[in-house]
Amino acid sequence: MAKILIVEDDRKIATALAVRLKAEGFEVEIAMDAAMGITFARRTQPDLIILDISMPAGDGFIVAERLRTIVQTMSIPFIFLTASKQPGLRERAQDVGAVDFLEKPYDAAKLVATVKKALSAVPAAA
Amino acid sequence: MQKTPLKVVAIDDDTGDLLLLRRHLEAIPGRAVEFITAATLDEGLSAIRRHGPDVIFVDHYLGRHTGLDAIAAIRSQGCAQPVLMLTGMGGEELAVIALQSGAADYIPKVHLSSASLSRSIDNALEKFHLQQTVEEHQRHLETANRDLIRRNEEIRNFYHTLSHEMKTPLTSAKEFVSIVLDGLAGPLTEDQTEYLGYAKDSCDQLVRHLTDLLDVARLETGKLRIDLEESDVGVLIGGVVAAKRITAEQAGVTLNVDVAQTLPRVTVDPQRIRQVLTNLVDNAVKFSESGGSVTVRAEAGSEPDEHLFVAVIDSGCGIPEDKIGRIFDRLCQAVESDSPLRQGLGLGLHICKELIELHNGTIRAESTPGRGSTFSFRLPASAGTC
């Protein structure tokens, strides 16, 4: 069973994501801020991380860049999730190595499809 | 006529010349003069500070100083009043230098008369007054411009906050409704399914309205940019039509796709072109009656700057003649406000037009009331060219 880490500061959205992904048979863990996200990722080494971009104490880009420097987390694929439509955000996401990009409000079917695609494209972390 | 006396500071080391100047000034008809004299530049500067004159006369030869030094010194102590330069000798060259260094006029003492002084003073004061007015306008404009820049920035930040603050709760509302509706929180009764279905539709509608509002805001603040990539519009059309098929079937409307076998590829923002197509197809289905049809046609363009031609043709109610010219205007609604067909904010077609124009393309609407409408757009090979 693939393990997914959700890094999202909004508790409700984190819960909604978790419910949806658990229903699809995934094991889910939630981190409510950037620091927790990095710690959890290092400790539990999930197969995929869903990363919110806009968080008050350290945004998704900071988390992504940090994860890339830690041996245990550097090859874990991650998907960005954001409500922002700022131009150039997708390019930035690609630059830091995101495998995909989801916009809020997200569509449940698209979320699941994106997650499955991300998991199948990159072999699960050993 | 009693005028406020003209306050004059005259700097000259020759008392005879000062006396002469005073006489001529006092002889100017209709002009009262308060005459303050100074024999050296330092005395003159202090008199200017003390009295705040309207006009300053400076002799070009002031002991170890020249009139040009005097002008520089006067200006450097913050006095902007007109300075008239007097000299015992003439000479074009000196006149030019004097004027270039900021003297309002240059008067050889041999030509001194009440008439010439009066003219020079009037000119100098007029010029000074105009300059003050221009500078004041300039300052107003600069302030107004700064305010506008600041306000524009505030509006941009506001939209950014608005976007985030509205999308976040909407995301969780929509998703929790979906979770319950999909049975992830336990089985539902038929009524519960029906009612939650309405809630989900409303959430989706809110999402669309919010997206439209934010797009218009971005268009108006110039913040909406397009991310170009080589795209197959045929594939985009296929996706949009597939997503709309169920709604169309429910409305009894046939959806046809008429895309040329070999469609030229274009460099566009695929998400934005999909948005335009979705909007046009949505409208076409919405305004078609049961038994009607909607056709999406795409083919290679036939004009030089037209690489690709796309049309959405419906057999709906058409657009009234008085509306068709304004159909792409912001807030224009094709139907009256009491019509059951009326839905949305009246921003959809406006956004379509702006998006197509951001791609350097054109969009147009044709309609025969009662028989249907055709919305078509043309795109160049690349949105970056043309």
Task: Lay out the secondary structure.
The complex is a heterodimer of chains A (126) and B (386).
Chain A: E1 3-7, H1 11-23, E2 27-31, H2 34-44, E3 48-52, H3 60-67, E4 78-82, H4 89-95, E5 100-103, H5 108-121
Parallel strand pairs in A: 1-2, 1-3, 3-4, 4-5
Chain B: E1 6-11, H1 15-26, E2 33-38, H2 41-51, E3 55-59, E4 61-62, E5 65-66, H3 67-76, E6 83-87, H4 92-100, E7 105-108, H5 114-181, H6 190-220, E8 229-231, H7 233-251, E9 254-259, E10 266-268, H8 270-286, E11 293-300, E12 308-314, H9 321-324, H10 348-358, E13 362-368, E14 372-379
Parallel strand pairs in B: 1-2, 1-3, 3-6, 6-7, 9-11
Antiparallel strand pairs in B: 4-5, 8-10, 11-12, 12-14, 13-14
Helix pairs in contact in B: 1-5, 5-6, 6-10, 7-8, 8-10
Indicate the proportion of strand residues of chain B: 15-25%
Greatest contact pair?
A: A-B, 21 and 25 residues
User: Could you give a short account of the major beta sheet of chain A?
Assistant: 5 strands, parallel
Structural class of chain B: alpha/beta
- Overall geometry of chain B comes to elongated
Number of helices of chain A: 5
Strand order of the largest sheet of chain B: 2-1-3-6-7
Tell me the radius of gyration of chain B.
Answer: 38 Å
Indicate the overall shape of chain A.
globular
Order of helices and strands of chain B: EHEHEEEHEHEHHEHEEHEEHHEE
Q: How many DSSP E strands of chain A?
A: 5
Summarize the amount of helix of chain B as a percent range.
40-55%
* Structural class based on helices, strands and sheet pairing of chain A: alpha/beta
Question: For this entry, what is the oligomeric state of its chains?
Answer: heterodimer
What would you note in describing this structure?
The complex is a heterodimer of chains A (126) and B (386). Chain A is of the alpha/beta class and 126 residues long. Chain A is built from five helices and five strands, in the order E-H-E-H-E-H-E-H-E-H. In chain A, strand 1, helix 1 and strand 2 form a beta-alpha-beta unit. Chain A is globular and about 30 Å long. Chain A starts with a strand and ends in a 5-residue tail after the last helix. The mean pLDDT of chain A is 91. Chain B has helices at 15-26, 41-51, 67-76, 92-100, 114-181, 190-220, 233-251, 270-286, 321-324, 348-358, and strands at 6-11, 33-38, 55-59, 61-62, 65-66, 83-87, 105-108, 229-231, 254-259, 266-268, 293-300, 308-314, 362-368, 372-379. The mean pLDDT of chain B is 87. In chain B, strand 11 and strand 12 form a beta hairpin. Chain B contains ten helices and 14 strands. In chain B, helix 6 (190-220) packs across helix 10 and helix 7 packs parallel to helix 8. In chain B, strands 2-1-3-6-7 form a five-stranded parallel β-sheet, sandwiched between helices. In chain B, strands 9-11-12-14-13 form a five-stranded mixed β-sheet. In chain B, strands 4-5 form a two-stranded antiparallel sheet. Chain A binds chain B through residues 10, 12-13, 16-17, 19-20, 23, 54, 83-88, 90-91, 104-106, 108, and chain B through 160, 163-164, 167-172, 174-176, 178-179, 182, 184-185, 203, 207, 214, 218, 223-225, 227.
